From TrEMBL:
One Gene Ontology MF term: isomerase activity
Enzyme class: isomerase
Name recorded for this polypeptide: Maltose epimerase
Enzyme Commission number(s) of this protein: 5.1.3.21
Reactions listed under catalytic activity: alpha-maltose = beta-maltose
Function: Catalyzes the interconversion of alpha and beta anomers of maltose.
Annotated keywords: Carbohydrate metabolism, Isomerase
Family: Belongs to the aldose epimerase family.
Pathway entry: Carbohydrate metabolism; hexose metabolism
CDD domains with a match to the protein in the record: galactose_mutarotase_like (cd09019)
Amino acid sequence: MSKREVFSEFNGETIYKLTLTNQNNMSISCLSFGANWYELLVPTKNGKQNLLLNFPKVEDYVETNQYLNMSIGRTAGRIGKGEFTLAGKTYHVDANEGENTLHGGPHGFNQINWNSRIEGNQIIFDHQIKQEDDSFPGDLDVTITYTLTDDNQVLIDYKATSNVLSLFNPTSHAYWNLNADDRNVNNLNLYLRSGEHLELDDEKIPTGKVVANANTPYDFRHLKLIGSAIDGLQGIPEKGIDDVYILDDHDDSLPDAILENNKQNISVEIYTERNAIVLFTANSFGADQPYIGRTGQPQVGVALEAQTAPNAVFDSRFGDFSIEKGQTKHYQTKYRIMF
């Protein structure tokens, strides 16, 4: 079953909500604004439960949390001083966090009202991002596809073609909370297939060094309570996690992350072909954020953002998210939902 309907009007444009439901009565909904992953509804004995945070109005995203569940691009993470080099040429792109460029800058994917349609079991968004729109080199034709399968998987596919050498490192900034009641995520178990994370400077720009996770609160190589890690990080300014985890050697058969509510028997497995996941525990979120059915508070949700490590922009040891002239690149992240 599928449905495309008007969600609201914003800045003179119509925002659409697109919904798919599979044979197990699991549903996903997306908004055309930001190619936003708006809902993931699973059936329970008490009715459908949304596993994602969301807001009632588009204005809430713009005014209180512009990245909540948004598609992120052209580049996820931070580019220090908005500066990078490609083929010996240095580029400067617009900053939106001090002097740095965060999540594609002030005119990233999250600011676009995307063309939208439903085809079969897919929600499809497309848009051409021009250089004059976001200051990155060249024009980028982007398609973002959400696929819902009958075995309760959600696949997000990012496809882009560029007319010049440029950058492409997209992700989903989905925030998860698997609790039916109004509590934060500290009672959930988390696994991350990662033995190290990136060292970050005071502006959260990677320094190029890595830090071992073993014997620290950052270690999630075995399922453990998110709250136990948070308790061990109260001595740092963040009082939680906002870090880039480098994934261990790739294995298609193994999940790269697992988020689990064992009291409700709900879990999400994440599989990615990328080399990093940013783990963010929403440490400074507060009551000013008007979630549907939840109270804004620290650790109200957890983001697990699959991407190429952001310091690949200046250090090829950590990957490459350049896109060549005329090249088409695909990235896919798979979410397997169990309930």
